[in-house]
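Before the break, one more example. Copy the sequence into your notebook; we will annotate it together after we see the structure.
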Amino acid sequence: MMRWIVLKCVSVLLLLGLTVPAVAQDCPAFLDHEQRKLHSRDSVNLCEVAAGKPMLVVNTASRCGYTGQFEGLEALHQQYKDRGLAVVGFASDDFRQEADSEEEAAKVCFVNFGVTFTMIAPTAVTGDQANPVFQELNRQSRQPGWNFTKYVVDRNGKVVARFPSQVRPDDPSLIESVESVL
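Here is what the structure looks like once it is written out:
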């Protein structure tokens, strides 16, 4: 539905001799899906959040030994958001470490760690059931082997680097990769 609306708007703009918005031109198809936000009835289309922007995409879990990385991911978000980086977390129970309720997961993210970047409600990130974003990331790279796998994605939707769970958000190699796509 969203794609149809965008195409209609583009057609009208072209008929009027106006330019096509960057969102319609720059958004990879795998981002053009409604994703429900964590512990919310609201949804987000990642084309609206990240079209034409580099991204750091992370699969998360609120009961994992790496959950403290939320703090570092938020720091990256704050440091690079004005330069265009979109940090997006995908809560997932693929490794059986997500909270029993979204309310609890949201508390961990938003209250305990002060997360302000986009967090997506629990979804599959591995295998045939992976959501469309992770289907593409997994096709381009490798699927997560555990929680807090990080993918640096360029403005065109290409994975330029994948970092396993143990690589912290403040690791120089991850920061260098993020800066390379800004």
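The CA atoms of residues 32 and 47 lie 5 Å apart. The chain has one domain: 2-181. Try to locate both features in your own notes.
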